Amino acid sequence: MGLLEDLQNRSGNTCELCGSTENLQVYEVPPVSTGGMDGSLLGCSLCIGQIENPDTTDANHWRCMNDSMWSEHDAVKVVAWRMLNRLKSEGWPQDLLDMMYLEDETLEWAKATGEGEEESEKIIHRDVNGNILENGDSVVLVKDLKVKGSSMVAKQGTAVRRISLDHENAEYIEGKVDGQQIVIITKYVKKI
Questions:
Q1: Which value, in Å, is the radius of gyration of the alpha carbons in the chain?
Q2: Distance CA 169, CA 77 (A)
Q3: Which residue intervals define the domain PhnA protein N-terminal proteobacterial in the entry (predicted)?
Q4: For residue 191, which of 129, 115, 143 has the smallest C-alpha distance?
């Protein structure tokens, strides 16, 4: 069975966030490191669209978090925590957040995208030209980089797709080069 079928079986063929049965698709919860069943959820296009584009967020749609925040699956809890934090100025999401409990590892995953932090607290990652980098962006290396702890050299011009940001240090990002996950310093990359 593929991931989609596994998630359909797990969720009873409904959106794991709002319960809709229409336009369901796999959503890998960023930053994507595990993927698969543990790092993904089955979501409807409405939920996924609002997750990926905060400007389209309809607070009333997310009242469904009252149920989905209690999911036994970490990927669902992480998205619920992020959306409740995004909406906490509405009032009711803060009440749900106060009731919600996440294990330390799950909470770290939930905070990895910077959701829930005040704008002044967020760490901003910038490339060599000052462009803001975000999780999932693609970058290209602007110089040859020796990879510490290996004999590998990441060549200038190498594209690194679907990067993930270090949420504690603005100078570090992670990405795969030649199939190996490495840490890259932001001053050596340019956003594509």
A1: 18
A2: 25
A3: 6-52
A4: 129
Give the closest residue to 112 by CA, choosing from 42, 47, 172, 23: 172
CB-based burial of residue 147 (10 Å sphere; 0-12 exposed, 13-18 middle, 19+ buried)?
Answer: middle
Contact yes or no for 184/173 (Cβ under 8 A): yes
Q: Could you tell me which residues are beta bridge partners of residue 160?
A: 139
Q: CB of 163 within 8 A of CB of 175?
A: yes
Structure tokens at 122: 């967020």
Q: Is the separation of the CB atoms in 181 and 154 below 8 Å?
A: no
Contact call for residues 27 and 48 (beta carbons, < 8 A):
yes
Q: What is the DSSP letter of 98?
A: H
- Which structure tokens are listed for 73? 């699956």
Tokens of 153: 């050299």
What pLDDT, in 10s, does the model give residues 159-170?
A: 998 898 887 788
User: For residues 125 and 13, what is the distance between their CA atoms, to the nearest angstrom?
Assistant: 38
Check if the beta carbon of residue 17 is closer than 8 Å to that of residue 79: yes
Contact 42, 24 (CB under 8 A): yes
pTM for the predicted model, two decimal places: 0.61
Token representation of residue 192: 């594509």
